[in-house]
Amino acid sequence: MRVQKGYQKNICRRFLSGMAFLFLFFLMGTGISHAEGRWEQEGQSWYYYSSDNKESYTGWVQSSTDGRWYFCLNSKMQTGWVSWNGKWYFLNSDGAMAEKQYVGNFYLGEDGAALISAETPDQRKTSENGSLLRKGKPMQELNEKTAKYISVLMEHPDAKAFFDSPNQLSLEEGNGYPFVIFKKMSLYDRKSGELLYAGDAAFHKNAVIEYNNGSEKKMISVMDLMMIRGVAGERVFIDPAGYITYVAGGVE
């Protein structure tokens, strides 16, 4: 039986499309959802629920309209850097996963993950934490003592934080990339209240902190922490090198 060329092309396209999805499924790991759930806007945030009874969901969601990928933590759509299955991804302000581009000192590959110990398309090399190399050393790197909170936040991404102010701040240069060391940050388990970490915190020089003093909500810088008694944050966001980029839900 003779098969028309148009039909052959259609079958080929479907096969390749299916293989592409399976490849992404393998890259993302478990936690992929599609049209069986639903999105709901609550305040200024978007939430994805996998069932009618608003069952909490953590993982990736692919848009049925444009094919873009979104990540939810306890159903809430995330933005900024997220860690998943040992890889780092960056989510744009609209929640969509970024790919094939630089974000700061990191490059995101075709699957959206930051390149680790690899070479970028423009022949620049990345370090073990994903940061670009400069003169053979990572542009962003924390010492072992300070870096301890990275694993804590990767294991407890929704940990609550307290920044004990006024406190000592010091501007560090690293490998030509400035950042601010703050003493001290405490991280607590959201459910049990257990203390998970107490020690230094490394902030991007231009990091932003949500701050609500009871009468107004505003965005402040890490330097502004010196003028406040203390700030409790609902969540701390870090990049792959562990530098704090954003603190959400900060209250005095």
UniProtKB/TrEMBL annotation:
Pfam families: Choline_bind_2. This is Cell wall binding repeat-containing protein. The lineage of its organism: Bacteria, Bacillati, Bacillota, Clostridia, Lachnospirales. Keywords: Repeat. PROSITE patterns: CW. Coiled coil: none annotated. Gene3D superfamilies: Cholin Binding. Cell wall-binding repeats lie at residues 78-97.
